[in-house]
Amino acid sequence: MDAKGLLTGLPWWVKWVAIPVIAIVVFGGLIASLVGFLVGLLFKVLLFVALVGGVIYLVRRFTSASSSSRGDW
Fold first, then answer.
1. 8, 31, 9: which is closest to 20 by C-alpha?
2. Which residue of 29, 38, 39, 55 is 20 to 30 Å from 2, comparing CA positions?
3. Statement: the pTM of the whole predicted model exceeds 0.70
4. How many angstroms separate the first and last alpha carbons of the chain?
């Protein structure tokens, strides 16, 4: 008996309400921790990109300002 044969005689609310609710109760902590990990990882990646971009901007700004104000060395 396959999975579809197992669920054929059951009412619709068992398939579409009871089984998903049981899955969320059983695996809810795992799902929440995975979502939290992914959101945290995305935040850290975006923070890293912003900080690297800021450093590159500052280095280019100060090196161009210092090279234009050197005069005739």
1. 31
2. 29
3. no
4. 87
Low-confidence ranges of the chain (pLDDT < 70): 1, 68-73
Do 24 and 31 contact (CB within 8 A), yes or no?
yes
Structure tokens at 4: 């579809």
List phi, psi (to 5°) of 2: -90, 180
Secondary structure (3-state) at 73: coil
* Token pair of 32 as six digits: 């929440």
Any idea of the CA torsion for 63, 65, 67, 73, to the nearest 10 degrees?
A: -130
Burial (CB count <10 Å: 0-12, 13-18, 19+), residue 20: exposed
